[in-house]
Amino acid sequence: MKIKPFCFLFIYLLVALAVNPANAQTTHNDKYLELAKENYIDNEYEKGDFNIARYLGQPEAKANKILEIIKYKNPKPTSFLSGFYSDEFFKFFFTSSAYQWGSNKTKNGYIITKANDYKNYFIIVLGKPFIETWSILGNDRTGQFGHTVGMSESKIIIGKLSKEGRMKNSCVNFKIKGPIQYFYNPKFVDTNQDGTKELLLRYNVTLGDSYLQILEVYKTQNNQENYCFLTKPKIFKARNGYTYYKDGYFYVSIQHPTKEEGHLNASRQLLQVFTNQGELIKEENLPNHLWTTNIESLDIKYNYD
Q: Is residue 247 part of a domain?
């Protein structure tokens, strides 16, 4: 069997970042790449991944230089994805993880990746960078590889804003274990039409043979919208699919093989629709959208509002 060029799929990341206007500048800052190279040579992989993410956060970053440095890590695949998925899916999967490192705000090995606010509260998502290598198996893609620049874990911080809109103090601080391929922007949405907005956290956890999309819905302990006091979240999970809230309903789509199919070539998705009370009101067996160009439900630009 002929092995295709290493990191073939990672070219999607290179192309996507190359057309980003922010990357069209003629100057760039290579100091983080130089540090990452030294880290990898010294077997300091966590520091190396951190510096790669720092480099991606530079507005003048040139993504084709990343591969020159990652090779010093001698990366080995630790997970795999089905080769039956579409080019559009692979482009989303490998590029979205790199786009989340646009901030230069760092602390104790974490980088701020997402932030939002509502009324006099803020929420920030910090990630600890972790580069994961994927093997693509099945169809005609066997032998291809790709990298995600995700997180080994994320830290969620919620706090209050001053009258001037500045972060005054924090009141909630917890971690979500990874590896996490991508963390969507947190949203404040009234999912049960009671006049109080819930906090929605949506992210993709990587598994050995796939990914798991998770949606956590946090209510405040009273109707005063005090986000310093949250209840235990309602959680929706979708393996190799999606889960999100829209227009009063929660959608969960899970990859589902037929009796004749295995995990790699599963051609169907089981879509379930739930009310805000958790009642299942609709179920459909549909073609696997991950095989198609229709990946809107995974799009990082998806907006709950």
A: yes
